[in-house]
Design goal:
The protein is an all-alpha fold and 62 residues long. It has two helices and no strands. It has one domain (3-61). Keywords: Membrane, Transmembrane, Transmembrane helix.
């Protein structure tokens, strides 16, 4: 396989994973905002931090 083509494919795959990761983070923050508006009286940052820690722990176990 041509070296430049391989590098382009790898960088494209990395770009796709970064975009998907950012979408997951925004989705987590959106869901936190939605559930927080339902009446949860916890600290704003604690919900997001808990979701992020849960996400990273699940990702790490795979």
């Amino acid at each position: 396989m041509n070296g430049r083509l391989w590098v382009k494919k790898v960088s494209f795959i990395e770009f796709v994973f970064k975009v998907l990761f950012l979408l997951v983070l925004f989705e987590i923050s959106f869901l936190n905002e939605k559930y927080r508006n339902k009446g949860s009286s916890q600290d704003d940052d604690s919900d997001l931090n808990l979701s992020l820690m849960t996400f990273f722990l699940i990702k790490r176990q795979k």
